[in-house]
Design a protein that fits this description.
The structure holds two protein chains of two kinds.
Chain A: H1 3-12, H2 16-28, H3 33-53, H4 59-76, E1 91-96, H5 104-115, E2 119-122, H6 129-138, E3 143-147, H7 151-166, E4 174-178, H8 184-190, E5 194-195, H9 199-210
Parallel strand pairs in A: 1-2, 1-3, 3-4, 4-5
Chain B: H1 5-21, H2 26-34, H3 50-60, H4 65-72, E1 76-79, E2 83-84, E3 97-98, E4 104-110, E5 118-125, H5 134-138, E6 149-150, H6 154-159, E7 166-169, H7 180-187, H8 189-198, H9 200-225, E8 231-235, H10 248-254, H11 256-268, E9 272-276, H12 285-290, E10 295-299, H13 308-315, E11 320-325, H14 330-333, H15 336-350, E12 356-360, H16 370-383
Parallel strand pairs in B: 1-7, 7-8, 8-9, 9-10, 10-11, 11-12
Antiparallel strand pairs in B: 2-6, 3-4, 4-5
Helix pairs in contact in B: 1-16, 7-8, 9-11, 15-16
Classes of the chains: A alpha/beta, B alpha/beta.
Chain lengths: ~210, ~375
């Protein structure tokens, strides 16, 4: 097994410490950060995503895999300020909408997006509408990702989209939404660009929105 | 009840259907259902947020919650258990209030200034979140004890509803018999998931504290309630929107033994056991049955694998069900016609041979239009009838 394969296994199995030290070793061996991300970290995340889709892995396994990916990424971050990875896949501003303080699902999505090569700006929970608008502009985000757990709070997603339109920002950012009460019908209803039912599919969606 | 013609008109349909369909008391009806016999109509349980309760009372002209439930033909009456007499729950300057477990909660408002404005109490601080060892957790000073409760009024409180209604002892959200939920409150949800994957000692330690408490507390509750309790409800959220939160193997490893213990204790007191969980728990249902569960609630139809028709076919001989009415899409976003279709589907597929209680997949939320709530209860009475 190659060292990169080993790294992807560590990520998949949520072995953060091991993933971190192996990433350091790979850098020492002059493997590029880009290659480490693509063939190590992302591969590991994709593998756990597939197991999750097949009901073979569940939230605890997904969470520790996402954490391991971000730990490995920490090592790479200084190397990512220049060179090929200076350009990430894109910037995602993410947060749980106003009135809702649930963040477990959102955090897993944020970690996996980050591990998956995106620059992620996490605004936390109970985020006021104006803050989403401001941060999207400030970071020149390509994607705005909104999360909600309750059905009444999900209506705040519609308000954010309406506000983006009003401010003339709607064409500049793709909006993806998620959370337990979200489905494709709701996505269509409020005019979001995409919905994902879980974190692994959120990565795929983010990639496709920027393709 | 207000007697103005407008309210009488609004109540007319439900009153007429009930007059025609009902031939037994709520208690007789529900007992038959959970014993897999067909009563006169499918029993009704009711979960609503306070905002909806208030709107219902206004709409139908009811002057108390008791009047509302009686008018709607709700058969189940909730008993929240003994009265808390422990130390006063501490209030903090940041507006948070400690609960039974020492977990601090705050009130969060959603939909500010909109017609669906409401509030939820949310965990703001989990006391065990940053602890790193079993020793620290064992040394936590705020573990609750069953001595913090006065059980003396419980029997009379339950008996108040008898012989007319079916009394469900369910505790409230904070002291409901559970394992994973208190762990999540105490430790934080995210940290609990990490523990489940990586820190078995900590999971077992917190679980044991929680389980020991309920194993001591529940016999006192059941003993105090005597034969005035008709059923016991416990609850943990083991399901997500798609699939269980944890694997079957993990459930077996950490939660099976106490699940069985909780069921056994209730059965020793002659009580059947209802279990609340949100989400898709399809893979866990055989485990629930094997370990003593009698009734699974509150089936969430939008979750994967929780179609009531399939559940009834596969497990309906051994397990009764409560729920199946969707609060995620149909009630808040559908039409009254969609609501009726949903009720009809559940009734047609789950009522045969008893073993089914109407109910929503969680509280009807404040974003639900009154016309859909009306459609729901009218449809319960229209499609729930046997024979």
């Amino acid at each position: 097994m190659s060292t990169l394969e080993k790294l992807s296994e560590y990520v998949e199995h949520g072995k953060g410490k091991e993933a971190k030290s192996l990433t350091q070793k790979l850098l020492g061996d002059n493997i590029s950060a880009n290659k480490i991300v693509q063939e190590g970290i992302i591969k590991g995340l994709d593998a756990i995503g597939e197991k999750f889709a097949a009901f073979e892995a569940f939230v605890p396994e997904l969470m520790v895999a996402a954490m391991a990916a971000t730990e490995a990424l920490e090592v790479l971050r200084p190397k990512m300020t220049h060179g090929t990875l200076h350009k990430t896949l894109g910037t995602v501003v993410i947060g749980t909408v106003e009135g809702d303080v649930h963040d477990v699902g959102k955090n897993i999505v944020a970690m996996m997006l980050e591990g998956g090569g995106f620059n992620v700006v996490d605004l936390g929970v109970d985020v006021p509408l104006a803050k989403f608008l401001k941060e999207v502009q400030y970071h020149e985000a390509q994607i705005l990702a909104l999360s909600a757990l309750y059905t009444p709070t999900r209506l705040a997603m519609r308000d954010v989209i309406e506000a983006l339109k009003k401010e003339g920002l709607r064409d500049k950012v793709r909006v993806m939404i998620g959370g337990a009460p979200i489905d494709q019908d709701f996505c269509n209803l409020i005019g979001a660009d995409g919905y994902a039912p879980d974190a692994p599919q959120a990565i795929k969606l983010a990639r496709s929105l920027l393709a | 009840m207000k007697d103005d013609p407008i309210y009488k008109d609004r109540r007319y349909r439900i009153n007429e259907l009930r007059k025609k369909n009902e031939k037994m008391t709520s208690r007789e009806r529900t007992i038959k259902a959970i014993n897999f016999e067909e009563p006169d109509r499918i029993p009704i349980d009711n979960w609503m947020v306070p905002e909806i309760k208030k709107r219902c009372m206004e709409y139908w002209g009811c002057e108390s919650e008791e009047e509302l439930l009686a008018f709607l033909g709700v058969d189940v009456r909730d008993n929240y258990g003994p009265s808390y007499v422990g130390q006063e729950f501490k209030k903090f300057d940041d507006g948070t209030v400690a609960d039974l477990w020492g977990v601090r909660r705050k009130v969060v408002t959603y939909g500010k200034g909109t017609p669906h404005e409401g509030t939820f109490k949310e965990v703001a601080w989990s006391p065990l979140e940053h602890m790193t060892s079993v020793e620290e957790i064992n040394a936590y000073k705020a573990w609750p004890t069953p001595d913090w409760w006065d059980y003396s009024k419980m029997k009379a409180e339950c008996a108040y509803w008898h012989p007319e209604y079916f009394v469900l002892n369910k505790g409230d959200r904070l002291d409901r018999t559970a394992q994973l939920k208190p762990m999540m409150y105490l430790r934080g949800i995210q940290q609990t998931f990490i523990d489940l994957a990586m820190n078995p000692d900590i999971v077992e330690c917190i679980r044991d504290h929680v389980v020991n408490y309920f194993v001591e507390y529940n016999p006192k509750v059941f003993g105090a309630g005597g034969n005035e309790i008709d059923m016991f409800m416990m609850g943990d959220d083991m399901g997500g929107q798609r699939g269980p939160l944890i694997s079957v193997e993990m459930w077996q490893k950490y939660f099976r033994d106490a699940f069985r213990k909780y069921c056994d204790i209730a059965h020793e007191y002659g009580l059947k056991v209802m279990y609340h969980t949100c989400g898709d728990v399809y893979q866990l249902i055989p485990e629930f049955i094997e370990n003593g569960l009698d009734c699974l609630q509150s089936l969430q139809p939008q979750a994967t694998n929780m179609d009531i028709k399939r559940l009834k076919q596969e497990f309906g001989k051994h397990l009764s069900f409560q729920g199946g009415m969707d609060i995620q899409q149909v009630l808040p976003l559908g039409t009254p016609e969609d609501v009726k279709k949903m009720v009809r589907y559940a009734a047609e597929n789950a009522k045969r041979g008893g073993g089914y209680i109407f109910g929503t997949s969680h509280n009807i939320q404040a974003d639900t239009a009154m016309e859909n709530v009306v459609a729901l209860f009218e449809a319960y009475h229209e499609y729930g009838v046997y024979g």
